[in-house]
């Protein structure tokens, strides 16, 4: 492992960034008729067009050298082989094993649990699993947070078609989340899945306790709890201490944010059925095989990663906006926030030294076209430098006749074009002159309506919005994050940065209770604690 900043390829990239400081993407297109094709890749029904990036052949070659210098291919082999690449916790990060086909010799236990999940889901879906009043299950409530929530939530939102129990997700410890959800559910026909890798996450356990009481209040006896409560965890002891009999397990080598493919996906299986879950895994596996085998210059996840490195480390674009043009993918930006920022939001190297290069940018975004009417003004004319991923699922031929579908797709294509092309000021001047504007008024209007353009974006197109393509898309992003972690020389698979706040919250929780505050805080924190206590009459 090596500090990227010392690689000759890093220096080459710095020199290229300086040399190309004024490079215009439109000039790159003018000089190369085949640019759109030469800067596009496809795998598993997902395509990436990165031609609207400020990248030329020299930059691409230098980025590929950087990937070689940093040992991306070797690291990739280590990940697929299940080696302990999570060095700070001495664990593998082997999520690819979770979507290997049934005959793969990777890990018998994976398939054993998957079979148990499928059998359970079938019982519930067929109606043979009954609740305490003898009725079949109509609703499934997943209680979990972070990786125990975001992945299954995204998949269910993307793919649920009403063909199975309705999926619900509660993550927030704010009582409004669970209380509002329970208000719409019938305890007699609800199955609760408590999903927590550690089974020690305070928010999840607090919500699980309330949900359990809700069942008891509705008439479920102690013996009935098992009909309505299952757990997904790696911590069998804590699950049984909590009083849940049935647990679907997974392993410490499955990171929370990489876990939707494991038993954490139980809500997906229940809502969508076994076939859809298998298709999701198969889509991810197809992307895995592409990532594992394709040379880096033809490798979609690797190129996605390298484009991000170029923008972040060499063009100084520290803000990355993801806009899916599909209502069903509205949760993709939140999912990616955890995947990318919890994985690579680090400033220490794998050797425990301070990182010398900038790591993950801010990841944010929301669904298009809504986003256009919120912050696209800034993306087009603001001074914050942002690079973008547009995610565009195509739809079946029938949709060609739906005016809204044409709007959805046209808007996505147009926004990427506008960001790159900007507006030609000569044409605008003539337009305004034709409207009778002149002098200072004309100049003022011209300045306000000026779009410089040259703002970079990726376009990721999915052939259709279905289980296969969504699986492939998420796997592509997972591998992007992996490659960036290798290049930045950080461990993408730990998350020590979330620990301190958790410990402090535990302390403050007790200070908001009956007893007088005991900890020594800074003045601001002490005042806040005192203020809450006053509000509660303590
Ligand atoms: O707070 C961070 C985190 O540990 C995430 O990494 C994880 O996905 C989430 O909390 C939930 O953890 P658990 O599944 O153990 O409840």
TrEMBL record:
<dbReference type="InterPro" id="IPR018189">
    <property type="entry name" value="Phosphoglucose_isomerase_CS"/>
</dbReference>
<keyword id="KW-0413">Isomerase</keyword>
<dbReference type="GO" id="GO:0004347">
    <property type="term" value="F:glucose-6-phosphate isomerase activity"/>
</dbReference>
<comment type="similarity">
    <text>Belongs to the GPI family.</text>
</comment>
<dbReference type="InterPro" id="IPR001672">
    <property type="entry name" value="G6P_Isomerase"/>
</dbReference>
<dbReference type="InterPro" id="IPR035476">
    <property type="entry name" value="SIS_PGI_1"/>
</dbReference>
<dbReference type="GO" id="GO:0006094">
    <property type="term" value="P:gluconeogenesis"/>
</dbReference>
<dbReference type="GO" id="GO:0048029">
    <property type="term" value="F:monosaccharide binding"/>
</dbReference>
<dbReference type="GO" id="GO:0051156">
    <property type="term" value="P:glucose 6-phosphate metabolic process"/>
</dbReference>
<dbReference type="InterPro" id="IPR035482">
    <property type="entry name" value="SIS_PGI_2"/>
</dbReference>
<comment type="function">
    <text>Catalyzes the reversible isomerization of glucose-6-phosphate to fructose-6-phosphate.</text>
</comment>
<protein>
    <recommendedName>
        <fullName>Glucose-6-phosphate isomerase</fullName>
        <ecNumber>5.3.1.9</ecNumber>
    </recommendedName>
</protein>
<dbReference type="GO" id="GO:0006096">
    <property type="term" value="P:glycolytic process"/>
</dbReference>
<feature type="active site">
    <location>
        <position position="502"/>
    </location>
</feature>
<comment type="pathway">
    <text>Carbohydrate biosynthesis; gluconeogenesis.</text>
</comment>
<dbReference type="GO" id="GO:0005829">
    <property type="term" value="C:cytosol"/>
</dbReference>
<dbReference type="Pfam" id="PF00342">
    <property type="entry name" value="PGI"/>
</dbReference>
<keyword id="KW-0312">Gluconeogenesis</keyword>
<dbReference type="InterPro" id="IPR046348">
    <property type="entry name" value="SIS_dom_sf"/>
</dbReference>
<dbReference type="GO" id="GO:0097367">
    <property type="term" value="F:carbohydrate derivative binding"/>
</dbReference>
<comment type="pathway">
    <text>Carbohydrate degradation; glycolysis; D-glyceraldehyde 3-phosphate and glycerone phosphate from D-glucose: step 2/4.</text>
</comment>
<dbReference type="InterPro" id="IPR023096">
    <property type="entry name" value="G6P_Isomerase_C"/>
</dbReference>
<keyword id="KW-0963">Cytoplasm</keyword>
<feature type="active site">
    <location>
        <position position="373"/>
    </location>
</feature>
<keyword id="KW-0324">Glycolysis</keyword>
<feature type="active site" description="Proton donor">
    <location>
        <position position="342"/>
    </location>
</feature>
């Amino acid at each position: 492992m090596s500090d990227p900043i010392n690689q000759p390829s890093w220096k080459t990239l710095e020199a290229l960034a300086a040399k190309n400081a004024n490079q215009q993407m439109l000039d790159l297109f003018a000089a190369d008729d085949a640019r759109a094709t030469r800067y596009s890749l496809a795998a598993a029904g997902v395509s990436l067009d990165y031609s609207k990036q400020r990248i030329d052949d020299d930059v691409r070659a230098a980025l590929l050298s950087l990937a070689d210098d940093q040992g991306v291919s070797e690291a990739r082999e280590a990940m697929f082989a299940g080696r302990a690449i999570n060095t700070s916790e001495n664990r593998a990060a082997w999520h690819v094993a979770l979507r290997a086909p049934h005959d793969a010799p990777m890990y018998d236990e994976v398939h054993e649990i998957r079979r148990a999940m499928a059998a359970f889901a079938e019982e519930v879906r067929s109606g043979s699993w009954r609740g305490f009043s003898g009725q079949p299950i109509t609703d499934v409530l997943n209680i979990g947070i972070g990786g125990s929530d975001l992945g299954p939530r995204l998949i269910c939102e993307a793919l649920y078609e009403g063909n199975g129990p309705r999926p619900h997700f509660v993550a927030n410890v704010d009582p409004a989340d669970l209380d509002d959800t329970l208000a719409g559910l019938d305890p007699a026909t609800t199955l609760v899945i408590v999903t927590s890798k550690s089974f020690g996450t305070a928010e999840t356990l607090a919500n699980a306790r309330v949900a359990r009481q809700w069942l008891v209040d509705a008439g479920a006896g102690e013996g009935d709890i098992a009909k309505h409560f299952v757990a997904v965890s790696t911590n069998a002891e804590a699950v049984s201490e909590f009083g849940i009999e049935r647990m679907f397990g997974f392993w410490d080598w499955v990171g929370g944010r990489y876990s939707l493919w494991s038993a954490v996906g139980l809500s997906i299986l229940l809502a969508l059925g076994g076939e859809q879950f298998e298709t999701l895994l198969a889509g991810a596996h197809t992307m895995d095989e592409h990532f594992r085998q394709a040379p880096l210059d033809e490798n979609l996840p690797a190129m996605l990663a390298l484009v991000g490195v170029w923008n972040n480390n060499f063009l100084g674009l520290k803000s990355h906006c993801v806009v899916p043009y599909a209502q069903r993918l509205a949760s993709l930006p939140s999912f990616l926030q955890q995947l990318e920022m919890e994985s690579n939001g680090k400033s220490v190297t794998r050797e425990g030294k301070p990182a010398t290069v900038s790591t993950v940018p801010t990841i944010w975004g929301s669904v298009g076209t809504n986003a256009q009417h919120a912050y696209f003004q800034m993306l087009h004319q603001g001074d914050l430098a942002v690079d973008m991923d547009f995610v565009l699922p195509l739809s079946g031929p029938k949709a060609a006749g739906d005016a809204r579908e044409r709007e959805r797709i046209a808007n996505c294509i147009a926004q990427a074009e506008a960001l790159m092309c900007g507006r030609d000021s000569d044409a605008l001047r003539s337009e305004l002159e034709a409207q009778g504007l002149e002098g200072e008024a004309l100049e003022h209007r011209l300045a306000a309506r000026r779009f410089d353009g040259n703002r970079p974006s990726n376009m990721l197109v999915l052939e259709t919005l279905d289980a296969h393509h969504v699986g492939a898309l998420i796997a592509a992003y997972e591998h992007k994050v992996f490659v960036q972690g290798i290049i930045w020389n950080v461990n993408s698979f730990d998350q020590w940065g979330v620990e301190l706040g958790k410990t402090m919250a535990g302390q403050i929780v007790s200070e908001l209770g009956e007893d007088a505050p005991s900890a020594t805080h800074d003045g601001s924190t002490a005042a806040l604690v005192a203020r809450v206590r006053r509000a509660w009459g303590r």
